[in-house]
Amino acid sequence: xxxxxxxxxxxxxxxxxxxxxxxxxxxxxxxEEETEFKAILYDSTRCVGCQSCxxxxxxxxxxxxPEDFPEVGVLxxxxxxxxxxxxxxxTSKGEVYVKRQCMHCNQPACGAACLTQxxxxxxxxxxxxxxxxxxxxxxxxxxxxxxxxxxxYNSPNPKITKCNMCFERQQEGQLPACVENCPAExxxxxxxxxxxxxARRRIVENPDAYYPHIYGENEAGGTSFLYLxxxxxxEIGFRTNIQNASYPAxxxxxxxSVPAVFVLVPSVLLGIHKATKSxxxxxNNYD
Amino acid sequence: MTSxxxxxxxxxxxxxxxxxxxxxxxxxxxxxxxxxxxxxxxVGAAIIVxxxxxxxxxxxxxxxxxxxxxxxxxxxxxxxxxxxxxYILTFVVYVLKxxxxxxxxxxxxxxxxxxxxxxxxxxVLDLGKPWNIFNPIIGNNFGANSVLFLVAWHFLLYIVxxxxxxxxxxxxxLNARRAHKILSGLTLGAVIFGITLSxxxxxxxxxxxxxxxxxxxxxxxxxxxxLLFLMSSVFAGLSMVIFEGSISERVFADQITSENRKQRKxxxxxxxxxxxxxxxxxxxxxxxxxxxGHRWAYINTPMGYWFLLEMLGFVVAPMLLFLLSFKRANIxxxxxxxxxxxxxxxxxxxxxxxxxxxxxxxxxxxPSWMEIVVAVSIVFVEIWIFRWVxxxxxxxxxxxxxxxxxxx
Lengths: 287, 408
Ligand code: SF4
Ligand code: SF4
Prior knowledge:
Number of strands of chain B: 0
Low-confidence stretches of chain A: 1-33, 282-287
Largest sheet of chain A: 3 strands, mixed
Radius of gyration of chain A: 24 Å
Mean pLDDT of chain A: 86
Shape of chain A: elongated
CATH class of chain B: Mainly Alpha
Order of helices and strands of chain A: HHHEHEEHEEHEEHHEHEH
Mean pLDDT of chain B: 88
Strand order of the largest sheet of chain A: 8-1-9
Number of helices of chain A: 10
Low-confidence stretches of chain B: 1-11
Bound molecules: iron/sulfur cluster
Number of domains of chain B: 1
Radius of gyration of chain B: 22 Å
Oligomer: heterodimer
Order of helices and strands of chain B: HHHHHHHHHHHHHHH
Distance between the termini of chain B: 23 Å
Strand content of chain B: under 5%
């Protein structure tokens, strides 16, 4: 793996394809080597916008079939009945299709937000939601930087819905439905490590076809859904202000200070209490 | 109803009869407050029934992009800031031993306690699956690195702490002398525990939004939200004490002894002083955050004007008025300032949790009339219970003579 990567940098250096990209890759956390998260690589240069992924997703999760289709200028969104959508964008390299769904962040904001661990990053990689734990507080929705979890507002027993990378199917050794049914091979399933290598290989072998960045390599601390694009990602509707550090890291400072507060504040208060008490004892009788 | 007659009468009755009698309403029925609040609460109750039958979406306008509406943003997040008076005053009275606030500490704790109980209630309404609310508590699932998990636990524990702080009043009401002695002995512990919990969950409510870094307008988002929330809870709570005090003074005039009445002016002036000072510190923090975050670029936009309105109209202005009030020893200014501060805190909390949250979303969230009715109903129910307790327990009036400690 490390040799692979060094070779890759060499190639990059020779072609001078993107210094910034190389820097980013070096800054990557070591976690990738230790964990074998399963992941999906989506290559929008291959996607033909056929919506097979949408239809198969609806079928395996018992959701209504999609009735609209990707259209330039129309932003279709995921919702409680639709866990993935394909949108079309008019870009500097012509029309490009983009599939969107949960990014399956390596350190998901939704999972850190959830107070019951209903949202859970499985050790296999998919981020799943567990109905019997969830209390429906919707804090996961507040926290997800990609606005992914959706809520069934019109149900008395509502669910949080989002892509779960077909976790049940994976458990049975099957591929996620979208990957299995993509006729253009725009979706590939594998370990995150394999797919990172594959994505880099594609960029290096075909530098003209790709914008030299793998979205999801570092975004939000790295995700288990990886994207390749022919154009800069802001042209195809991605938020570019997503930070590269993980989102749960933003609350670390607060959470770490809690035990300290629990020790310090009571002792300070008791100290003050003692001090003021001895002053008052002369004149007053307090218990 | 004088307190001394109370225990005497009670001795002849069984506890059950006594409680039953106490449950009956007292005083006039057709007060303006009742005429307004009763229909609102009835409609609110009907809406709550609809909400549980047809789901939250049937009554509320919250969206997939903006999932928390007024029930969370107003009742929970704003309400808790106003309940902050309890931890500040218990700190001043029981830890710093500043005796002059003694006469208002019990009513403030009662207020805080009820606020928490009812805001927890608002939270339950807003939960999609409230029957799972005990999951994070009975501990089959500890989401221990969740800020909300901490906030939930601190809420719960703080309600207990406040119940203990208030319990001597209940014991006095029930004439339970032994229990009173034991419960009074627990006060200091509960106070210290309560203050610690308060600092953590007041800031924790701000920390809830830390992960929404790109989703909150940069004028309101910073990594210092927890500190800003904590600091502003000081003057939010105290302004509420001033405001609530000026109403209670009229409504419950018969309960307040003339000695206490004289003290009140002095109390309000001292509170103004603390408010002015804490707003100053808050303002200073806001300015630091503003400069640190390079926020100049956003000022000349609609959101920028909105931010300026919040800062100048509802932070700077009340601060000056509080200053004026204690310089001139004029409590009228303090009351105006308290009202302005309250509006400002509502604005600030709603800004962070709702208005500036996904300010860029295609569809903006505007609460439905039903959400507002429920939000207001919750406050009304709280006031009803508050009134019920004040009319029965020694909260504003003096404790019975056997409870020789003055509200300790
Ligand atoms: S994209 Fe959102 S919902 Fe999906 S794992 Fe990341 S934080 Fe969670
Ligand atoms: S809505 Fe459910 S899954 Fe989301 S944070 Fe709350 S408890 Fe967790």
